[in-house]
Amino acid sequence: MAMRVRACGVLLFLLASCATPAPRPNASAAGSLRLANLQKAATLPWRDDGRCVVREASQSWPLVVERCFQSLDTRRIHFRDTQRRCPVASADVVTLETMVGICLLTQPEIAVGAVLIIGAVVVAVAIQEQLNAYEFRWPYPEEGTAGETAEPATGTQSAEQQSLASRRPKPDGASSGQDWFPPGPPPSPEPHERRLECTPRPVPHLGGDALHNLCADKVPKNEFPGSDVLVNGKRFDALQLRQRLLWEVKTDNFDTYPTFLRTQVIENQLPELQRERTLAKACGFDFRIGVSSAAHRDALRDRDITLNVVVMDWC
C-alpha cells in the first residue's frame, strides 16, 4: 500500500512538471534586438519601403541582411572590400556582389569606405513607423530594455481629460428643449519649450558611418557627443543648446564626384534638409548644415540661398 502511494505521488509530480509552462523568452531582450536592427536598417536605402526588415527585425542582424538583401536599392550602394574581409569563391558577377554585400553589411564594425551610399538616405516608411512606435513607447530608446510602459486601464481618464470633459457644456437632453452652447475654441498650443516632442533627447547613433559620427560628435560645444539628438520626431546629428542650434552633418567626398553625381546628390539632399529645417524651427531651434568641402557648400546654397551651410574645419 505504501509503495502504491509513493508511486502515485511520483506520477502526480511528473504530471505537474509537464503542465508547468515553459519559461517565456525575455521580451525586453527581443525588443532591444529588434530596435537595434531597425536602427541599422534605417541607414540603408530600400526598394520595398522597409517592409522586409520590419517583418524580419526580430531575427539576428546577419539573418535580416540575408533575407532582405534583395530588397535593398543596390543601385545606390557600392560595396568595396578593401580590407579583404570577405573572401568568396568564383561566381558570376551578380552572385559575387550579393555575397560580398551581405558579408560586409554583417561585419561587427563596417570599415570606413567599405559601404558607400550615393545620395542622402531617407528612412524607409515602414522602418520609420516602427522607430516612431518605439519612441512613443519609451522616453529613451536605449531604456526600452527596462520594459514597456504600462497602458492605462480601460475606461480610465487622465486628469487633463477629465478636466476638459468637465468644462464642456452638455445638453440636458433632446426632450428638455433647453439651448446649450457648443464647446469653446481649443486651448492655444503650448510654447516650444513645453511641448514634449520639442524637448531634445539623446538617442544612440544609427551607426554604419564612423567618419560621419566622428564629425558630428566634434561639432563645437555639442551637447550630446556620442549620440544623435531627437527633436520633433527627427534625429539630428548635434545640438548646441546655448545657441538653440541643431546640426545636420554631411561627409560626402563631394569634390571627387563627377558632375552628374554632384547634381544627383544635391537633388537627393535638398528636400530632406529643407524638411529638417522646418522641423527644427517649429520647435524654436535654428538649423545649420556642416559639409566637408566648399564645393558642397556652394552647390547647396546655389539651390537654396537661405540654407545655413558651413565647411567643417574640425573634421
Please characterize this protein's 3D structure:
This protein is an alpha/beta fold. Among the domains are: 27-126, no CATH class; 200-311, no CATH class. The chain is built from ten helices and nine strands. The protein has helices at 2-19, 27-41, 51-56, 61-68, 93-105, 125-137, 159-167, 210-217, 259-282, 294-303; strands at residues 77-79, 115-117, 201-204, 227-231, 234-236, 238-240, 245-249, 286-291, 309-311. The strands form three sheets. It has a four-stranded mixed beta sheet. Strands 3-4-5 form a three-stranded antiparallel beta sheet. It has a two-stranded antiparallel ribbon with strand order 1-2. Strand 8, helix 10 (294-303) and strand 9 form a beta-alpha-beta unit. Helix 2 (27-41) crosses helix 6. The model is unreliable at 5-25 and 138-194 (pLDDT under 50).
**Oligomeric state of the chains present here:** single chain
Mean pLDDT: 75
Q: Give a count of the beta strands, DSSP E runs of length 2 or more.
A: 9
What composes the largest sheet?
4 strands, mixed
Strand-residue proportion: 5-15%
Strand order of the largest sheet: 6-7-8-9
Rg, rounded, reads: 27 Å
Low-confidence stretches: 5-25, 138-194
- What structural category do the secondary elements indicate? alpha/beta
Described by the principal axes of the CA atoms, the overall outline is globular
Task: Work out the helicity level.
Answer: 25-40%
State the helix count.
Answer: 10
- Measured distance between first and last alpha carbons: 86 Å
Order of helices and strands, N to C?
HHHHEHEHHEHEEEEHEHE
